[in-house]
Structures are given as C-alpha cells and as structure tokens.
C-alpha cells in the first residue's frame, strides 16, 4: 500500500498516514499490536520454521527471564518539559553517527520464513535507516545482500571457524569488507547449536539441508569451494548434502576459540570488532583490556543456554563496571518500544531487534519487516515524547528516568 512506501524512515508520518487512510475506511495490512506478531506468524509458518524461530533452549527458562526482566523497570514521566520537536533517536556508536538506536540482529536461514529472505530484510533495513547485520548462516550470498542494502549501514556477523580453517575465515572477512560491511560482529556463544527441544522434536536442523537455506555464503565462497574440491574431487553442486554438512561443521566447529585467537581477527580485519554474547563483568573487562571496540550483552534470546540470567540484568552489572570504557549493545528479549527505551536508559548505546522482524518477514516480506521496524521506532518515539524525554542521548535517557521494583 502507498503509505508503506511514502512514510519509509518516518514512523510518526507512518502513524499519520494510517489515520489518514482510516478516513477513507481503509485499514492497514498489518497489526500494530507487537504482542500479536508472533501468534499471527505462527499461523503461517511450517512446523519446522516455527520451531526454529520460536523455540528456545531446554525449558525456555532463560527466555522467560529475558521478558520478565523488562517489567521490573518502569519509565517514570516528567511533566512540563518544554518541547518544540519530537525526541531525537540519533545515537553515536563505534565512532559513527547513526539515525536510530536499533539494528537488525543477525539471523540466518531467512528463506525458511519467506522466499525473499535476507533480501527483503536488508532492503527494509536500508529504507528505515536501520543498520543491518548479515549472518554467516544466511540463505543469500553476501554480495546479493549488499546490493539490495545499497547505501545502508551494514555489519558482518561471523560464526567463527576453527583455527584449522583460518583460510576460510580470511576469505569471509575479505568478502565482507569488499561489500561494504563496516563492522565485524563475532558471535561467541554458538560454536555448537544449543539443546533445542522444538528442533529435536521436528528432527530439523536447517544448517544440514542441502537446498542452500543456510549455506549461501559458504557455497559461494572461493576458498570453501576450492577446499571442497581438493577434499572430495568434485564440485559443491555435485554433492550438496556433503557440502552442507561440511559448511555446518566449519561455522559450528563444536569447540570454542580462546582470547588469544582474537589477535588473528585483528590482523585480518581493519574495522571495529564487536563481541556478541558477553554476559559476565569479567569477560567485559577482558574485552576492554584487549581493545575491543564493542560488546553485545546477549544470551542469544535464550536459544543457546537454559537456566541463565536475564540479559537485561547482566546489562546493568556490566554497564556499572565498563560502561564508560567500551560501546555496549543490548540483545535478547526486545519486543516493543518501551523495551528499547529501558535498555538504552540502562546504558546500552544500541539495541538489536531479532524475532520481531522475522515475524514481519513471515507476515509480509519486505513490507512486513518495514512495518515492524517503523512500529518499534514509532512506539519508542512516543514513549519518550510523552515521558518528557528529549532524546536517546544519556543526557536525557538514563537510569534517573526509571524506577525499579521486584
């Protein structure tokens, strides 16, 4: 519909356009109730794709804690704060000025949710001015994603192969840099997939599928293809099942790297490095000591390890210790504008949005993703505006804006 295009990148205009269309008795194609996106998407997904994106590690305890943690914090409004403009969402991160404080979290295999997959997500992110993080497990090549993302801000997320495959890692980093990915985001908590009952019940691991749902980056990589041919004496296309298994084994090697291995990444990447999956103060301090530019306080949305603490609770502790020494990004549990505001008030400079945009992708491809992003930013803007908070800058949005209660 027209208003989905004309108000791109402007969530408040989006709201005005929807009400304007209402005067002609037209209703928008997607709900604005963020709590309903998941249920609506569930109705459209296959059992396998539903289990993959909605499933969690073990009993889901960590995921539940992620959501419950937000409700312990309340945004306390101030009155008679004179304003002539709406709150600014501009933020500065990794020495870069950005128009909004949210980014697309890296999620792979997006074609299991919509045939357009990463192409739809990357295009919507560019339209909304939201940084896009490309997953190593994507179902679309990094080159094709870069094309549709155009002038958008894009970062590359690495599932880090073992040291036996450093030549592959170098190739992946080189391709990312050549295609305009400015920041390297290294996921630390997924060297092996977690114990996920929903995937096990469906006997479904998308990374082992040979139809390229999670293998596009590997199958298009010259080093991976060269090594595969030397090992098996044939091309990837001649035995895609084996190739998929090999690729999965490389990006999920089973065992973790050590701190000393970060030197290799620094030698082969000349931009900012962000480590995703930090949960302890000790690890955060180690990142500062090693000169890492940023960290993502994340527990992978509760998809990897169960029985852990809420990511928001860890954010508070980590910010208390290193908040002034390193750029901190938050991830895990974001579902609405007030969640974003609370994470920013607690010291994050940016927030990653994960599952909600996948639900948008399921419901409407590029338009669905754009709707989710615009809705979250509109929700955030109005929450700040009506609370008397002039911007997402720590000068205006900080812990003094919040009240904590058990």
UniProtKB/TrEMBL annotation:
Residues 26-405 form the FMN hydroxy acid dehydrogenase domain. SUPFAM superfamilies: FMN-linked oxidoreductases. Glyoxylate binds at residues 52, 159, 196, 300, 303. One of its GO terms (molecular function) is FMN binding. Keywords: Flavoprotein, FMN, Oxidoreductase. InterPro entries: Aldolase_TIM, Alpha-hydoxy_acid_DH_FMN, FMN-dep_DH, FMN_HAD, FMN_hydac_DH_AS, LMO_FMN. Its cofactor is FMN. The active site is at 300 (proton acceptor). FMN binds at residues 106-108, 135, 157, 187, 276, 298, 331-335, 354-355. It comes from the Eukaryota. Belongs to the FMN-dependent alpha-hydroxy acid dehydrogenase family. This is KLTH0H16148p. It comes from Lachancea thermotolerans (strain ATCC 56472 / CBS 6340 / NRRL Y-8284).
């Amino acid at each position: 519909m027209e208003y989905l295009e004309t108000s791109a990148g402007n969530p408040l205009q989006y709201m005005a356009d929807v009400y304007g269309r209402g005067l002609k008795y037209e209703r928008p194609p997607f709900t604005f109730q963020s709590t309903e996106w998941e249920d609506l998407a569930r109705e459209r997904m296959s059992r396998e794709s539903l289990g993959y994106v909605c499933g969690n590690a073990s009993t889901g305890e960590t995921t539940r804690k992620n959501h419950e943690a937000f409700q312990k914090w309340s945004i306390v409004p101030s009155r008679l704060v004179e304003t002539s403009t709406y709150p600014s969402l501009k933020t500065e991160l990794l020495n870069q000025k950005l128009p909004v404080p949210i980014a697309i979290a890296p999620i792979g295999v997006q074609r299991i949710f919509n045939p357009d997959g990463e192409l739809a997500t990357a295009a919507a992110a560019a339209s909304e001015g939201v940084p896009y993080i490309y997953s190593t497990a994507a179902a679309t090549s990094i080159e094709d994603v870069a094309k549709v993302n155009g002038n958008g801000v894009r970062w590359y997320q690495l599932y880090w192969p073992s040291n036996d495959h450093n030549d592959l890692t170098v190739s992946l980093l080189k391709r990312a840099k050549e295609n305009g990915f400015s920041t390297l985001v290294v996921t630390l908590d997924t060297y092996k997939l977690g114990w996920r009952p929903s995937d096990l019940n469906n006997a479904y691991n998308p990374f082992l599928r040979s139809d390229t749902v999670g293998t596009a980056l590997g199958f298009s990589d010259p080093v991976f293809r060269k090594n595969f041919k030397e090992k098996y004496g044939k091309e990837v296309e001649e035995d895609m099942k084996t190739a998929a298994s090999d690729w999965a084994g490389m990006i999920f090697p089973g065992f973790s790297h050590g701190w000393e291995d970060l030197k290799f990444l620094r030698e082969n990447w000349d931009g900012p490095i962000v480590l995703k999956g930090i949960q302890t103060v000790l690890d955060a301090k180690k990142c500062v000591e090693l000169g890492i530019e940023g960290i993502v306080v994340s527990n992978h949305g509760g998809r990897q390890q169960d029985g852990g603490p809420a990511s928001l609770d860890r954010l508070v502790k980590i910010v208390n210790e290193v908040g002034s020494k390193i750029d901190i990004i938050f991830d895990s549990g974001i579902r609405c504008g007030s969640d974003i505001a609370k994470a920013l008030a607690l010291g994050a400079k940016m927030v990653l949005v994960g599952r909600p945009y996948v639900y948008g992708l399921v419901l409407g491809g590029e338009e669905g993703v754009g709707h989710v992003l615009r809705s979250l930013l509109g929700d955030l803007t109005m929450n700040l505006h009506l609370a008397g908070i002039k911007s997402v800058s720590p000068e205006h949005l900080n812990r003094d804006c919040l009240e904590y209660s058990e």
